[in-house]
Design brief:
The protein is an alpha/beta fold and about 675 residues long. The protein contains 20 helices and 24 strands. The protein has a five-stranded parallel sheet, sandwiched between helices. A five-stranded antiparallel sheet has the order 9-8-12-11-10. Strand 11 and strand 12 form a beta hairpin. Helix 13 runs parallel beside helix 14. The radius of gyration is 50 Å and the shape is elongated.
């Protein structure tokens, strides 16, 4: 014992305590000596002085050694406790040892005291060290198990047959199997076929050398393959500890790296060449005067562009005002003429045709403004469905034939495969819109000759075209015509009207469809506009291959009942007027709630014309309720919302069809007839 120890002596006889103290000093034990002759001082000294060993008499007035021993063992379990007594018999001594005393001796045989203290303190220190070692070992084992369980890499223990004995969470995550599943498997069960041979060699090396490392492909529970770096060591002849790290991404990156090495070499050469160019450029830019002059030139160009942009916007606003007022003047003027009495039928019919043509012109202008706004804000949407190309072009030919003949021109439609069913998955309305823009321009700018439109299939694209013998466009203006607000003739006294948006809208739509638009034109000869749409040949028998035809002028639905759901009185009056010639029975509802009640109360209703935006309950909610009541009752949505997703919303709500406002009479009657005929 190199350090001082603190000795507490429970003794009521001062001469005995002095004798024992002197023996301890002569024995060469470094110590601090404390004496207590009663229970209170004994307990107080234990609690305040950090005592190392207790010497105790057996019998004391009001207290005894057994009570002191009991207290010491309850509070200080491992502390040495030696009885030093003159009255202690053999039976008492044995009982004391059984109760936890370290040793005992009689006061008349104190020659054993110093060796007993030395031995007791030595055993005490050994016991403390053993307990500390056990605690340290337990903590170490717990830390090791925590590390293993929380390790980011897979950790496993296998036996000498290759079967898994224990695995951690990461091993389960890497393979996808549960702990219970893996512990029923062997290495062979998880190895990919291409790694079986390498796996056998790896395990053989591990058995022979006690350590092995290898990259092996393993099967994941989802069927994929994962490359794992396995490091294993021998724990015993029958146990091996292994660590698995998923390096699949690294392996894939290595493969990609090898493939890109040649590209990198080429890029490096290019970069070296660029560095040479930059060095030469730096020499040219050494003089600050040249840099300042360059900046000034850029500012002048920017200013010119800004001024040109302001000029274009001003010109566009003035032009748009003219373009809107022109058809509006005709609509208001000839509408007023219709109120005059005594007009001939011929004049009335002529005035109505002018009003209709002006309304269509105004609608086109409004649609162009909406489209260019959506294009500017990135809100233009494309709907994809299979369309019959030959049908689409035949419908356009029927529509434009009369317009072209009025200008004494000829119109030809040429299809690459006129006798085949050609279907393409695209937005048919947008393709039709672009073709209409190009046909309208061709008619506008062609005085004599002919107009031809059609398509050709080239590889994975359909090439649509519109060709005319009109005024043509000079080479320097080919790119300009696709810019918004731009026209070849932008003067106030230009011959041809227009808002300068049609071609810029067409260009944006074609690019959204996945194609490109170009022009081939010569001034005074004519123009050919072409645009492409991606094409993958596919036939769907549900897509109509028949031409759309106009309905009979007079239809009779005498025994049918139509419910008109419309909150605007003027719109209701117009729809009722359209239907009046059919002798159909008409019911009316001002909102969605009334519509639901009408359907409940009138089982004879044959069809519902459903407005979308209404008070109390909108058309979508009303349709959902009606379809639950009568699933087979046709519901046709009709709305003034001019947005492409409105048709999709209507169909998802349960509507059978969709008509947008303003209502086209022929289309309106045709759609209804499809459900009532």
């Amino acid at each position: 014992m190199n350090n001082k120890i603190k000795i507490l002596h429970l003794e009521d006889c001062s001469s005995d305590s002095e004798l024992i103290h002197s023996l301890i000093e002569r024995g060469g034990i470094g110590h601090d000596y404390f004496v207590a002759d009663n229970e209170k001082d004994f307990i107080n000294t234990l609690e305040t002085e950090n005592i190392d060993i207790i010497l105790s008499d057996y019998s004391l007035p009001g207290y005894n050694g057994n009570e002191a021993l009991k207290f010491a063992r309850e509070k200080y379990f491992q502390m040495p406790f030696i009885f030093v007594s003159g009255t202690m018999g053999e039976d008492v001594a044995i009982n004391a040892m059984l109760n936890g005393a370290t040793d005992y001796m009689l006061k008349n045989k104190l020659e054993r005291l110093v060796p007993a203290i030395t031995r007791a303190m030595h055993e005490y220190e050994l016991e403390i060290k053993r307990k500390q070692a056990e605690k340290t070992l337990l903590e170490s084992e717990e830390k090791f198990r925590t590390y293993i369980e929380c390790a980011p890499d897979g950790v496993f223990i296998i036996d000498n047959t290759g079967r898994y004995i224990e695995v951690n969470k990461s091993a389960c995550l890497i393979t996808g199997y549960s702990k219970e599943e893996i512990e029923k498997m062997s290495i062979r069960d998880l190895l990919a076929d291409e790694s079986l041979k390498d796996g056998q060699d790896y395990f053989k090396k591990l058995m022979e050398t006690g350590i092995a490392t290898s990259d092996l492909w393993h099967k994941h529970i989802d069927g994929s393959m994962r490359c794992l770096t396995i490091n294993a060591v021998m724990l015993s002849e029958t146990r091996f500890l292994g660590f698995a790290k998923d390096i699949t991404n690294r392996k894939q990156a290595e493969f990609a790296l090898k493939e890109s090495e040649q590209t990198l070499v080429k890029q490096n050469t290019d970069y070296l060449n660029l560095n040479k160019e930059y060095a030469a450029l730096n020499e040219e830019l050494t003089e600050s005067l040249n840099r300042i002059q360059h900046i000034n030139d850029e500012l002048i160009i920017t200013k010119a562009k800004a001024e040109e942009s302001d000029k274009l916007k001003s010109s566009f606003l003035a032009n748009m005002s003219h373009e809107i007022r022109t058809p509006l003047t005709a609509i208001m003027g000839f509408s007023a003429f219709l109120l005059h009495p005594g007009l001939s039928n011929e004049k009335i019919e002529n005035f109505v045709q002018i009003i209709n043509a002006s309304s269509l012109q105004l609608m086109t202008i409004i649609s162009d403004i909406i489209d260019i706004s959506k294009i500017e804000t990135g809100q233009i949407t494309i709907e994809s469905e299979l369309i019959n190309i030959n049908n689409l072009l035949n419908e356009l030919w029927v529509t434009y034939k009369k317009l072209v003949e009025l200008k004494k021109l000829s119109l030809n439609c040429l299809c690459d495969r006129p006798n085949n069913v050609i279907q393409v998955k695209t937005d048919g309305n947008r393709v039709k819109q672009v073709l209409c823009n190009l046909l309208n321009n061709a008619i506008k700018f062609t005085k004599e000759g002919n107009i031809e439109f059609g398509y050709k299939i080239k590889g994975n694209f359909i090439v649509f075209y519109v060709k005319d013998t009109g005024i043509g466009i000079s080479q320097e203006n080919h790119a300009l015509v696709f810019q918004r607000f731009r026209q070849v003739d932008a003067t106030d006294n230009r011959i041809y009207g227009g808002n300068g948006l049609g071609l810029s809208i067409s260009k944006a739509l074609v690019e959204k469809l996945g194609g490109a638009i170009t022009v081939d034109s010569e001034l005074g000869v004519g123009s050919t506009f072409m645009f492409t749409v991606p094409f993958i040949e596919k036939i769907d028998s549900t897509v109509s291959t028949e031409l759309t035809t106009k309905p009979d002028k007079f239809m009779h639905w005498n025994e049918k009942t139509i419910l008109i759901v419309e909150d605007e009185a003027n719109n209701h009056a117009y729809i009722e007027a359209l239907l009046s010639v059919t002798n159909v029975n008409i019911l009316h509802a001002w909102n969605g709630k009334e519509a639901v009640e009408q359907v409940k109360n009138h089982p004879d209703i044959s069809l519902v014309l459903m407005d979308v935006k209404m008070p109390l309950m909108d058309g979508y909610e009303a349709t959902r309720i009606i379809k639950k009541m009568r699933p087979t009752l046709p519901v046709i949505a009709q709305t003034a919302y001019a947005l492409s997703y409105e048709r999709k919303n209507a169909l998802e709500a349960g509507c059978d069809n969709y008509i947008s406002k303003p209502i086209n009479r022929d289309l309106f009657m045709e759609v209804i007839n499809n459900y009532l005929s």
